[in-house]
Amino acid sequence: MTEHFHKHLDILQSLINRMAGNSSTCKNYCVTLVTGILALDQVKSAHGFTWLALIPIVLFCFLDAYYLSLERHFKKQFKDITKLWQDDKLKPKHLFTIQPSDKGIHGIGLVLEAFGSYSIFPFYGALSIVIGVLMCMGK
User: What whole-number distance in Å separates Cα of residue 123 and Cα of residue 61?
Assistant: First the structure.
């Protein structure tokens, strides 16, 4: 049973690492697209493309929050299974049962809760403010 427990923890840890990597990739793609849109805006003489930079910001913000909520959920599963192991309450039915976060309203609540995270709100908020300032300046 010990071997299966450790394999289960390995699977959870790999899921946690994957969600963290996906979150980082979201930020990289977002910055790349926003920079490209702003560069295109500078090349065009009309300067009417700045608002388009808000689209990838919003989309990647939602996706990043979703990945963060999944990461938090898998971390909770990791802690729960470890606690069961320490309390000698671990049963075979607990092993290899890995599910994403709750569905329905509660799942949406987890994603909305992730928006307030220090890794989401300041990053995408700052990008949005920069775009807002550029739009106000007429650039």
Answer: 9
